Amino acid sequence: MYKLARRAEAKKDPLMARALEIGKEEFCGLPHCNPANGRKLLTAVEVGSNGFPTLKQTTVDAIEEDFCKLVPTQGNDRTAGCGSSKQTFSLDAGTETRDQAYEERADVIAGAIQLAFHDAGTWDPSKTNKGGMDGCACDLKEANKGLDYIKELLAPVYDKYKSKLSLADFWTICGNAAVKASVPAENAPVEVGFKYGRKDVDCTKCTLAVADRLPNENFSADHVIEVFRDRMGFSQTETVALMGAHSLGKMEPHNTGYAGKWDRTFALLDNVYFSQIINKPWERFIVDEKTKFEGSAPYQTDHSGNVDEEFKHEWRVPGTNNNQPFQDSTDKLLNTDMCLAWDIGNADDEVNSDANKDCITRPGVTEEVRRNDGSCVHGPQTKYKTMANAVANYASNQALFVKHFVAAWQKLMELTDSTLVEVGTAQSSTSTSCTDQVSSWMADNGKTCSWAWGLANKCNKDATWTAAKTCQQSCYDAGAGYSGDNCAALVLEEDTWEEA
Ligand code: HEM
Predict the structure, then answer these.
(1) Are 89 and 185 in contact (CB under 8 A)?
(2) Ligand 1 — pocket residues by CB below 6 A?
(3) Whose CA is nearest to atom 35 of ligand 1?
(4) Which atom of ligand 1 is nearest to the CA of 266?
(5) Is 404 a catalytic residue?
(6) CA 478, CA 117: separation in Å to the nearest integer?
(7) Does pTM surpass 0.70?
(8) pLDDT of residue 433
(9) In what helix (H) or strand (E) does residue 61 lie, and over which residues does it extend?
(10) Is residue 431 over pLDDT 50?
(11) 84 CB contacts (<8 Å, ≥6 apart)?
(12) CATH number for the 3-212+408-422 domain, one of 1.10.520.10, 1.10.10.10, 2.60.120.10, 3.30.450.20?
């Protein structure tokens, strides 16, 4: 079922119902609420440069657990392969029920991964508006329409935590949890490094110029290199590893005009995507959207109601039934997937040119073959040989792919102008509104905000100093020196807590 259809029936979608339930729950975690006794801090909490307080590991873990409650599995254990569950998700039996379970699972995990990529993928350090992870996967771009479902699903969950962290940090945590949950059993578990501090932007002000930085599937290798290497700073190998995310999820006509999946194990972050690129006999296919749908294409339209693009260029494997050689349900690849291993024309105007219209790829072909009738068989990608080598390496070594993907993923999630710090550590640059937040205890004792921040930093950096028990809230936030002794007494003196 298309995500769009399920979304239209949000009340009937058990995942959406679960998300709404989660959103209604209250989270008791530092610094606003002390989980040891459930008491809430009534005074203002000091915030760091992204407008949020020091993020605690307990909060990160709780978000991951809640995300995992939205990841369906085949069995009763809703959290298998996700969060604290030690079980891994397995792909057995090829039944309809299984396919349905995969669809639902993929909608969440692939959705969360694509969402985080579309937030990060606008990164351009050469521009004033650098984009990157900033809590805005802007809807102005048609490729982002497919994110509506996951955005809506995650919104109530974020509500539960919105005083603790930015949306960009939240999406990153969900994306990380999705990556961990997607890794095949034989390569699990994986650790995905995480730092926090991403600052959100006002997404209602997003511009097409920024949204348009996302890659265009209609182009080819030169474009992939321009986007990933030249703009975002990834190596060719890292780029290919990241493209392996297309091992998950699907394309939907209402979003992008494509329909289908890259492979059949679309709920697993495995290397089938790569082996298919190399080993299947791909044929170029042009979908004339208007003709195919008799003038009423169900595909994405622009603001005036026109079909954005009449022709979609994609790669399909011919079916066994000669009357219907290509099916929407068969595996598909986009130009930007094919070009990683095949020389399908690297330049934007070359890849979809009429000269290439009748060209195909065949496993094992080592050079381009042009026939008299204009048809041809493309040879392997040689301009960006490192990319082609990476496809071959990942196709034969799944563990290597997973390892490289996780490392490149963390790098992708760290494409931001904000300064990121370890969880539990105060952000170095702090908000200027601090002077408004001097507590009565600080005022009575002649203490200013700069004293408080100095103290916070010292607490975080110097464990022996905190042992002196001269504590205040920032130390407490940092998890240092709180043991119900003098330090705790001081915390209660300087901050107002809800009566027990
Ligand atoms: C050249 C680069 C890329 C292009 C042109 C591209 C294009 C696309 C397109 C057209 C879709 C189908 C969307 C729809 O119909 O709703 C898609 C889906 C997806 N993309 Fe990419 N993509 C690229 C790179 C990436 C990267 C680097 C990642 C993550 C690291 C990623 C993750 C995904 C995921 C997980 C889906 C499936 C979403 C779902 O099923 O909900 N993509 N991509």
Answers:
(1) yes
(2) 106-107, 110-111, 113-114, 117, 143, 146, 215, 217, 224, 242-243, 245-246, 248-252, 255-256, 258, 334, 336
(3) 110
(4) 40
(5) no
(6) 30
(7) yes
(8) 36
(9) helix 57-68
(10) no
(11) 61, 65
(12) 1.10.520.10
